[in-house]
Amino acid sequence: MLFCCPVCGGAFRREGGSLLCPAGHCFDYAKHGYVNLLRSNASSAKRHGDDRAMLLARRDFLDRGHYRPVLAALLELALPRLRAGDRVLDLGCGEGWYARGLLDAAAATGKPLSLAGVDISKEALRLAAKRLPEAELAVASAARLPLPEGGCELLLNLFSPLEAAEFRRVLSPEGRLLRAVVLPGHLLELKQAVYDRAYDNPEPATALEGFRLAAERRVLAPLELKGEEIGWLFSMTPYYYKTSAADQAKLKELSRLSTRLAVALLLYERA
Fold it and tell me: What is the pLDDT of residues 156-180, one digit of tens each?
Protein backbone atom coordinates (compact mmCIF):
# COMPACT_ATOMS: atom_id res chain seq x y z
CA MET A 1 0.00 0.00 0.00
CA LEU A 2 1.58 3.27 -1.16
CA PHE A 3 -1.07 5.56 0.31
CA CYS A 4 -1.27 6.63 3.93
CA CYS A 5 -3.99 8.34 5.94
CA PRO A 6 -4.45 11.96 4.79
CA VAL A 7 -5.66 12.96 8.26
CA CYS A 8 -2.91 11.63 10.54
CA GLY A 9 -0.35 10.04 8.20
CA GLY A 10 -0.87 6.59 9.66
CA ALA A 11 -0.29 3.44 7.63
CA PHE A 12 -3.35 1.97 5.98
CA ARG A 13 -4.62 -1.58 6.09
CA ARG A 14 -7.38 -2.72 3.79
CA GLU A 15 -10.47 -4.39 5.21
CA GLY A 16 -13.00 -5.33 2.59
CA GLY A 17 -13.92 -2.22 0.67
CA SER A 18 -12.30 0.24 3.07
CA LEU A 19 -8.92 1.60 4.12
CA LEU A 20 -8.36 2.01 7.86
CA CYS A 21 -5.49 3.55 9.81
CA PRO A 22 -4.47 2.82 13.44
CA ALA A 23 -6.22 6.01 14.59
CA GLY A 24 -9.53 4.76 13.25
CA HIS A 25 -9.89 6.97 10.20
CA CYS A 26 -11.78 5.10 7.51
CA PHE A 27 -12.05 5.69 3.75
CA ASP A 28 -14.34 3.61 1.57
CA TYR A 29 -13.60 2.54 -1.99
CA ALA A 30 -16.01 3.67 -4.68
CA LYS A 31 -17.58 0.92 -6.74
CA HIS A 32 -15.40 2.05 -9.67
CA GLY A 33 -12.20 1.02 -7.87
CA TYR A 34 -10.70 4.20 -6.39
CA VAL A 35 -10.75 5.80 -2.94
CA ASN A 36 -11.35 9.46 -2.11
CA LEU A 37 -8.47 10.80 0.01
CA LEU A 38 -9.00 14.48 -0.82
CA ARG A 39 -9.44 16.55 2.33
CA SER A 40 -12.57 18.69 2.17
CA ASN A 41 -10.53 21.91 2.40
CA ALA A 42 -7.75 20.76 0.10
CA SER A 43 -9.09 22.58 -2.93
CA SER A 44 -11.41 25.54 -3.32
CA ALA A 45 -11.79 25.05 -7.06
CA LYS A 46 -15.40 24.91 -8.27
CA ARG A 47 -14.55 22.35 -10.94
CA HIS A 48 -12.59 19.42 -9.56
CA GLY A 49 -10.54 18.25 -12.50
CA ASP A 50 -11.39 17.38 -16.06
CA ASP A 51 -14.98 16.47 -16.94
CA ARG A 52 -16.09 13.25 -18.61
CA ALA A 53 -16.34 14.64 -22.14
CA MET A 54 -12.81 16.03 -21.97
CA LEU A 55 -11.45 12.79 -20.54
CA LEU A 56 -13.13 10.60 -23.15
CA ALA A 57 -11.72 12.83 -25.89
CA ARG A 58 -8.22 12.52 -24.41
CA ARG A 59 -8.56 8.75 -24.03
CA ASP A 60 -9.66 8.33 -27.62
CA PHE A 61 -6.99 10.68 -28.94
CA LEU A 62 -4.13 9.05 -27.04
CA ASP A 63 -5.33 5.60 -28.06
CA ARG A 64 -4.78 6.66 -31.69
CA GLY A 65 -1.04 6.79 -30.90
CA HIS A 66 -0.36 10.43 -31.72
CA TYR A 67 1.62 10.97 -28.49
CA ARG A 68 3.68 7.78 -28.73
CA PRO A 69 6.87 9.83 -29.27
CA VAL A 70 6.28 11.41 -25.83
CA LEU A 71 5.79 7.99 -24.24
CA ALA A 72 8.93 6.70 -25.99
CA ALA A 73 10.99 9.55 -24.50
CA LEU A 74 9.50 8.88 -21.07
CA LEU A 75 10.48 5.22 -21.28
CA GLU A 76 13.98 6.06 -22.50
CA LEU A 77 14.57 8.17 -19.39
CA ALA A 78 12.72 6.07 -16.83
CA LEU A 79 13.31 2.40 -17.62
CA PRO A 80 17.11 2.21 -17.23
CA ARG A 81 16.85 3.80 -13.80
CA LEU A 82 14.03 1.65 -12.42
CA ARG A 83 14.38 -1.59 -10.45
CA ALA A 84 11.87 -4.38 -9.96
CA GLY A 85 9.42 -3.46 -7.22
CA ASP A 86 10.02 0.29 -7.38
CA ARG A 87 7.09 2.44 -6.29
CA VAL A 88 5.76 4.87 -8.88
CA LEU A 89 3.23 7.67 -8.36
CA ASP A 90 1.47 9.23 -11.35
CA LEU A 91 0.40 12.76 -10.43
CA GLY A 92 -2.70 13.90 -12.29
CA CYS A 93 -2.90 10.43 -13.79
CA GLY A 94 -6.00 11.14 -15.89
CA GLU A 95 -7.23 8.04 -17.69
CA GLY A 96 -3.87 6.30 -17.18
CA TRP A 97 -2.49 6.08 -20.72
CA TYR A 98 1.13 6.97 -19.83
CA ALA A 99 1.13 4.82 -16.69
CA ARG A 100 -0.16 1.83 -18.66
CA GLY A 101 2.66 2.24 -21.15
CA LEU A 102 5.25 2.42 -18.39
CA LEU A 103 3.89 -0.61 -16.50
CA ASP A 104 3.80 -2.76 -19.63
CA ALA A 105 7.29 -1.75 -20.76
CA ALA A 106 8.77 -2.31 -17.28
CA ALA A 107 7.16 -5.73 -16.97
CA ALA A 108 8.49 -6.70 -20.40
CA THR A 109 12.02 -5.99 -19.19
CA GLY A 110 11.59 -7.97 -15.96
CA LYS A 111 10.92 -4.96 -13.74
CA PRO A 112 7.37 -5.17 -12.37
CA LEU A 113 6.43 -1.96 -10.58
CA SER A 114 4.06 -0.86 -7.83
CA LEU A 115 1.92 1.97 -9.20
CA ALA A 116 -0.36 4.51 -7.59
CA GLY A 117 -2.21 7.29 -9.34
CA VAL A 118 -3.86 10.43 -8.02
CA ASP A 119 -6.16 12.92 -9.68
CA ILE A 120 -8.71 15.41 -8.40
CA SER A 121 -11.19 14.23 -11.03
CA LYS A 122 -13.36 11.29 -10.04
CA GLU A 123 -14.28 10.85 -13.69
CA ALA A 124 -10.59 10.44 -14.55
CA LEU A 125 -10.14 7.76 -11.90
CA ARG A 126 -13.16 5.82 -13.13
CA LEU A 127 -11.46 5.54 -16.51
CA ALA A 128 -8.03 4.88 -14.97
CA ALA A 129 -9.43 2.01 -12.90
CA LYS A 130 -10.40 0.23 -16.13
CA ARG A 131 -7.00 0.75 -17.75
CA LEU A 132 -4.97 0.13 -14.57
CA PRO A 133 -6.79 -2.52 -12.53
CA GLU A 134 -3.60 -3.39 -10.62
CA ALA A 135 -2.92 0.20 -9.49
CA GLU A 136 -3.82 2.03 -6.30
CA LEU A 137 -5.96 5.02 -7.30
CA ALA A 138 -7.13 7.93 -5.19
CA VAL A 139 -8.79 11.30 -5.45
CA ALA A 140 -6.10 13.58 -4.01
CA SER A 141 -4.37 16.91 -4.51
CA ALA A 142 -0.75 17.15 -5.61
CA ALA A 143 -0.34 19.92 -3.03
CA ARG A 144 -1.04 17.48 -0.20
CA LEU A 145 -0.27 13.93 -1.22
CA PRO A 146 -1.51 10.99 0.91
CA LEU A 147 1.93 9.37 0.93
CA PRO A 148 4.53 9.07 3.69
CA GLU A 149 7.92 10.74 3.44
CA GLY A 150 10.15 8.85 1.03
CA GLY A 151 7.20 6.77 -0.15
CA CYS A 152 8.15 6.27 -3.80
CA GLU A 153 11.08 6.00 -6.20
CA LEU A 154 9.57 7.73 -9.25
CA LEU A 155 7.09 10.57 -9.63
CA LEU A 156 5.43 11.23 -12.98
CA ASN A 157 4.40 14.87 -13.38
CA LEU A 158 3.15 14.97 -16.96
CA PHE A 159 1.56 18.22 -18.09
CA SER A 160 0.18 18.72 -14.57
CA PRO A 161 0.69 21.26 -11.75
CA LEU A 162 4.06 21.37 -10.04
CA GLU A 163 4.43 21.18 -6.25
CA ALA A 164 8.19 20.86 -5.85
CA ALA A 165 8.40 20.81 -2.05
CA GLU A 166 5.68 18.19 -1.71
CA PHE A 167 7.17 16.08 -4.48
CA ARG A 168 10.54 16.11 -2.76
CA ARG A 169 8.92 15.06 0.53
CA VAL A 170 7.43 11.86 -0.90
CA LEU A 171 10.47 10.82 -2.95
CA SER A 172 12.94 8.33 -1.51
CA PRO A 173 16.54 9.60 -1.17
CA GLU A 174 17.45 8.02 -4.51
CA GLY A 175 14.07 8.86 -6.07
CA ARG A 176 13.48 10.80 -9.29
CA LEU A 177 10.92 13.19 -10.66
CA LEU A 178 9.99 12.97 -14.36
CA ARG A 179 8.19 15.96 -15.80
CA ALA A 180 6.67 16.66 -19.22
CA VAL A 181 6.37 20.32 -20.22
CA VAL A 182 5.49 22.05 -23.47
CA LEU A 183 8.01 23.92 -25.61
CA PRO A 184 7.72 26.84 -28.06
CA GLY A 185 5.87 25.73 -31.17
CA HIS A 186 3.78 23.07 -29.42
CA LEU A 187 0.39 22.83 -31.18
CA LEU A 188 0.87 26.35 -32.52
CA GLU A 189 -1.03 25.64 -35.75
CA LEU A 190 -3.96 24.31 -33.71
CA LYS A 191 -4.11 27.57 -31.77
CA GLN A 192 -3.81 29.58 -34.98
CA ALA A 193 -6.89 27.77 -36.32
CA VAL A 194 -8.90 28.92 -33.29
CA TYR A 195 -7.63 32.38 -32.36
CA ASP A 196 -7.16 35.56 -34.35
CA ARG A 197 -3.96 36.12 -32.37
CA ALA A 198 -2.29 32.91 -31.22
CA TYR A 199 0.42 33.17 -28.61
CA ASP A 200 3.33 30.74 -28.62
CA ASN A 201 4.56 28.93 -25.52
CA PRO A 202 7.62 30.38 -23.78
CA GLU A 203 10.76 28.34 -23.23
CA PRO A 204 10.16 26.52 -19.91
CA ALA A 205 12.35 27.17 -16.89
CA THR A 206 14.11 23.99 -15.82
CA ALA A 207 15.57 25.04 -12.46
CA LEU A 208 13.67 23.44 -9.59
CA GLU A 209 14.39 24.12 -5.93
CA GLY A 210 15.49 21.00 -4.10
CA PHE A 211 16.24 19.12 -7.32
CA ARG A 212 19.01 18.68 -9.87
CA LEU A 213 18.25 18.23 -13.56
CA ALA A 214 19.83 14.88 -14.49
CA ALA A 215 18.65 14.33 -18.06
CA GLU A 216 16.44 15.85 -20.75
CA ARG A 217 14.81 14.63 -23.95
CA ARG A 218 13.06 16.90 -26.44
CA VAL A 219 10.27 15.53 -28.60
CA LEU A 220 9.76 17.41 -31.86
CA ALA A 221 7.40 15.60 -34.20
CA PRO A 222 4.69 16.40 -36.77
CA LEU A 223 1.04 15.71 -36.02
CA GLU A 224 -1.31 14.99 -38.91
CA LEU A 225 -4.90 15.09 -37.68
CA LYS A 226 -8.22 14.49 -39.35
CA GLY A 227 -11.89 14.82 -38.47
CA GLU A 228 -12.84 14.42 -34.82
CA GLU A 229 -9.19 14.10 -33.76
CA ILE A 230 -8.80 17.88 -34.13
CA GLY A 231 -11.47 18.63 -31.54
CA TRP A 232 -10.26 15.85 -29.29
CA LEU A 233 -6.79 17.36 -29.19
CA PHE A 234 -8.04 20.87 -28.46
CA SER A 235 -10.13 19.57 -25.56
CA MET A 236 -6.89 18.22 -24.02
CA THR A 237 -5.35 21.70 -23.85
CA PRO A 238 -5.70 24.21 -20.99
CA TYR A 239 -7.29 26.63 -23.48
CA TYR A 240 -10.42 24.52 -23.86
CA TYR A 241 -12.39 25.96 -20.93
CA LYS A 242 -11.31 29.53 -21.71
CA THR A 243 -12.39 29.53 -25.37
CA SER A 244 -15.75 30.71 -26.60
CA ALA A 245 -18.15 28.36 -28.33
CA ALA A 246 -17.80 30.45 -31.49
CA ASP A 247 -14.04 30.00 -31.56
CA GLN A 248 -14.30 26.29 -30.77
CA ALA A 249 -16.74 25.91 -33.66
CA LYS A 250 -13.97 26.91 -36.08
CA LEU A 251 -12.38 23.51 -35.52
CA LYS A 252 -15.50 21.69 -36.71
CA GLU A 253 -15.04 23.27 -40.12
CA LEU A 254 -11.62 21.61 -40.51
CA SER A 255 -11.31 18.17 -42.05
CA ARG A 256 -7.52 18.04 -41.66
CA LEU A 257 -4.87 19.86 -39.65
CA SER A 258 -1.08 19.70 -39.68
CA THR A 259 0.50 20.74 -36.39
CA ARG A 260 3.43 19.58 -34.25
CA LEU A 261 4.48 18.18 -30.94
CA ALA A 262 7.12 20.14 -29.04
CA VAL A 263 7.57 18.63 -25.59
CA ALA A 264 10.45 18.33 -23.13
CA LEU A 265 10.87 15.38 -20.77
CA LEU A 266 12.87 16.49 -17.75
CA LEU A 267 14.33 14.00 -15.28
CA TYR A 268 15.29 15.33 -11.84
CA GLU A 269 17.14 13.87 -8.89
CA ARG A 270 16.99 15.16 -5.34
CA ALA A 271 19.63 17.81 -4.74
Answer: 999 999 999 999 999 999 999 999 9
**Which range marks the domain in which residue 82 is found?**
33-185+196-219+261-270
Please report, for residues 4, 45, 120, the alpha-carbon distance to residue 12 in angstroms, rounded to integers and kept in the order given: 5, 28, 20
How far apart are the C-alpha atoms of 32 and 21, rounded to whole Å?
22
Query: Does 163 fall in a domain?
Result: yes
Domain count for the chain, please give it. 1
Q: Are 196 and 219 in contact (CB under 8 A)?
A: no
The CATH number of the domain holding residue 201 is 3.40.50.150
List, for residues 218-262, the tens digit of each pLDDT value: 999 999 999 999 999 999 888 888 888 888 889 989 999 999 999
**Which pairs from 233-239 meet CB under 8 Å and 24+ separation?**
233/61, 233/66, 233/187, 233/190, 233/259, 234/190, 234/194, 235/53, 235/54, 235/57, 235/58, 236/54, 236/57, 236/58, 236/61, 237/187, 237/190, 239/191, 239/194
What is residue 48's predicted lDDT score, i.e. its pLDDT?
56
Within-domain flag for 224: no
- Per residue in 83-111, pLDDT (tens digit) is 999 999 999 999 999 999 999 999 999 99
Q: Torsion angle of alpha carbons 91, 95, 116, 110, nearest 10°?
A: -110
